[in-house]
Specification:
Two copies of one chain form a homodimer. Chain A has 332 residues and is of the alpha/beta class. Chain A is built from twelve helices and twelve strands. In chain A, helix 7 links the parallel strand 3 and strand 4.
DNA sequence: TAACTGCTTTAAAACGTTTTGTCACTATGC
DNA sequence: GCATAGTGACAAAACGTTTTAAAGCAGTTA
């Protein structure tokens, strides 16, 4: 039915091993033989069976990608970076959504190992102990992309979230003393371990008291952001500047302010943290910390290829540079 | 090194076949034997090798997903639908970006067949003849998601783009006679074959002349949309209503109007076509044709599972319902 | 001419499963 | 007590490659 390496070998009067060498670009084949085999391959329409190859070679040229939710802008952008580099190094990716659920993460990880992936890129807001253990026990390399492992024993690619948040906050604190932080999920390590501490430190250094009402946690989407800001405004002690956990939150902030007839940046300033293309698709366009999502994905995948090939890697924990893109939601 | 089915068989004093039956839930195993085997599996930490299984059974429980660009909102949402249903039916997905490039599409398709996927979901703005032929020659089922095959010989899931566009346009034509259509790429079959003809028909039925300047083709992003609208306004014969090819274009339209001090919907009305979450993340929120992206992906994957299992399928070309969500960018 | 060298090529084992044909055993019916 | 089903389990082949050890071969060298 389907054409196998055996058929090619027979037609070309060579052994399977020789066909295998030709297919895999091994140099130990006489040019004349190579030509003959190539012709037969073309004539018969032979397509190597990657599954059989995987079984024999113990390599699948496939890596697993576990992601909270591909329909989120952020993770989609990260994934694009991963996939591009994967393609460059001739890997395919098996993609699966975890919905940030530990059980699913563990189960997906196991499934992927069962499928004999050569490595895994993992994105997770929180690397739980069970997940940590599973990764440590993995027979293939694992790299975290845009995710924090607090033990720092697992390879990962991130930016310095603390410094980035601190800079953004300092920017606002130059002109404001009522600065709110509308944050994403509290169990997201980047929030609990870096952004919120950065907020606290930035205020403390200005000898300002921390008003807990100005730290709104667990805002997960646009609507919740709009609502949170409305509540802040109606509280009678409205902030004059906002630091947004991400662009979607920032959009909610800007629109809630607009709905309350507050001008940005004249009346209120806003800085976001992400800089997806959304940041430029609002009026006013958002000043934002640039989270290089594509690069994080790409570097993570590149790192994974090195680990797979057992190449020397200088540092397992890579920190990419960040910067603040000044646009129209701040006074500059 | 790694635990194989053979190790389990030896430890449990049964044959490999029996272990295989237990693992695969085959009923022809005595409960006592099953229990014994299960215990050994647990004790040894046996994890079946899906690659070996794939070779022996000729099934990989993996499907290929070829997508123009995962970092696009639209395709990410479609993919989420695909992946959810894939998971439900115990499939994994191999995801790859084609960048809408025919060569890449063909090559990815070939790679996936080489990896012995059980089926493929394909998204492509244009099913070229070469791609069509490759699909027809495929040894495994292929389903198009949100993509048009003009020969209608390939399984596909879509909405009635013509009717949807026609309805949106009719809506605008009730109050306007200067209606522009800011369209996406012309080589996207949905545009060239359905939306533009719908525009023409809607105008003709009102006995209105078609002003070619009001059909702006090949607008691929927010910035181009902003620019196109600015040019239209500066032309001295500005439209009073816009039909946007998608939400990103619509955002560009709204912001360009805003920049030109035109009020939406008071001065100008806008209808979008897509209704991603972006549509609600603008002021004013967008009236939009609802493109059920998640559902298209989900239904496409469900259809694929049926085809893989050789179940009877009533209709290869499925058309999902659409509707218009009225929000604030039109007068209703 | 015989031994040696270095390059090609081969035959066969290995990879870890599923699946098929067969056999052994138990319970049933007469 | 004997043939008859029906279960449950086994042995071995098959899946389509890669890889390893060994052999073949042509050209050198002494």
């Amino acid at each position: 039915m389907t054409v196998t390496i055996y058929d090619v070998a027979r037609e070309a009067n060579v052994s399977m091993a020789t066909v295998s060498r030709v297919v895999n670009g091994n140099q130990n084949v006489k040019p004349a033989t190579r030509k003959k085999v190539l012709e037969v391959i073309k004539r018969l329409g032979y397509r190597p069976n990657a599954v059989a190859r995987g079984l024999a070679s113990k390599k699948t040229t496939t890596v697993g990608v576990i992601i909270p939710d591909i329909s989120s802008n952020v993770y989609a952008e990260l994934t694009r970076g991963i996939e591009d580099i994967a393609t460059m190094y001739n890997y395919n990716i098996i993609l699966a959504n975890s919905d940030q659920n530990e059980d699913k993460e563990l189960q997906l990880f196991d499934t992927m190992l069962g499928k004999q992936v050569d490595g895994v890129v993992l994105m997770s807001d929180e690397v739980t102990p069970a997940l940590h253990d599973a990764i440590e026990a993995s027979p293939v390399p694992v790299v975290l992309a845009g995710s924090i492992d607090e033990s720092h024993t697992i390879a990962s690619v991130n930016i310095d979230y603390f410094a980035a948040a601190y800079e953004a906050l300092s920017h606002l604190l130059k002109r404001h003393n009522k600065v709110a932080f509308i944050s994403g999920p509290e169990n997201y390590t980047v929030n609990s371990g870096y952004k919120i501490p950065a907020y606290q430190k930035a205020l403390q250094e200005k000898n300002m008291e921390i008003n807990e009402h100005y730290i709104i946690k667990n805002i997960v989407n646009y609507d919740e952001s709009v609502q949170a800001v409305n509540e802040l405004i109606n509280s009678g002690n409205a902030p004059t500047a906002y630091f947004a956990g991400n662009d979607e939150i920032a959009l909610g902030i800007v629109h809630a302010l607009y709905d309350n007839n507050l001008q940005v940046p004249t009346d209120v300033e806003v800085i976001s943290f992400e800089d997806t293309k959304l940041a430029r698709m609002v009026r006013p366009q958002l000043t934002s910390v640039v989270l290089p999502l594509y690069d994080i994905g790409a570097v993570a995948m590149r790192l994974l290829t090195k680990l797979i090939n057992k190449e020397d890697v200088e540092e397992l924990t890579v920190v990419l540079p960040h910067r603040i893109e000044e646009r129209d939601s701040t006074k500059g």
